[in-house]
């Protein structure tokens, strides 16, 4: 069951993500601004492990998970801006915004719906704490956010594949890769693959070796 602290955390994630996309779209945020936000966040996070940083501490106390306050304060928000910056540098502008919207809405809605209404464990999650109802709701929410910027086909497949990847715990050096990095990258690559017919070309390439 989702507690009030986690619910408020997910709502904050939606608000920050939505306003970030709006500011990027209206050119109030550019890659340099995002980079500066990341640097300030990292410094504030480090200082928060030593003591109380004004304003930053209030947000941590109200919204941060207790385990992350001790290890990496503000981790989720920092990785959100890191992934947003990477998306803007790697992908076309519309795909980057759509990818960030899938992260913003898909990830948060999956937690909210799964926490309140979920009963079926997602078979793709080895730890069995992510619920299937939440993942499906996240796909739908991610699609609604992405379709503002890209075609319905691109938005649909990106939301489905990215939220499927979100349910699978990816590890590097025996540490789980943060969902805030995985979701937009998978979404962006999926939309590129559809836009430039990479999937069709890959299928045709494989079939060229078919003996019949």
Number of domains: 1
Number of strands: 2
Overall 3D shape = globular
Major sheet details: 2 strands, antiparallel
The arrangement of helices and strands along the chain is: HHHHHHHHEEHH
Radius of gyration: 18 Å
Low-confidence stretches: none
Give the overall pLDDT as a whole number. Answer: 83
Strand order of the largest sheet: 1-2
Total helical elements: 10
Computed structural class? mainly alpha
User: Helix proportion of residues, in percent?
Assistant: over 70%
The fraction of residues assigned to DSSP E strands is under 5%
End-to-end CA span? 54 Å
In short:
This protein is an all-alpha fold and 212 residues long. The protein has one domain.
Model description:
This protein has 212 residues and is mostly helical. It has one domain. The chain is 72% helix and 2% strand. The chain has helices at 4-25, 31-48, 56-63, 66-71, 75-90, 93-117, 132-146, 152-167, 179-195, 198-207; strands at residues 171-172, 175-176. Strands 1-2 form a two-stranded antiparallel ribbon. Strand 1 (171-172) and strand 2 form a beta hairpin. The longest helix has 25 residues, at 93-117. It is globular and about 65 Å long. The N and C termini lie far apart (54 Å).
SSE layout and pairing:
Layout: H1 4-25, H2 31-48, H3 56-63, H4 66-71, H5 75-90, H6 93-117, H7 132-146, H8 152-167, E1 171-172, E2 175-176, H9 179-195, H10 198-207
Antiparallel strand pairs: 1-2
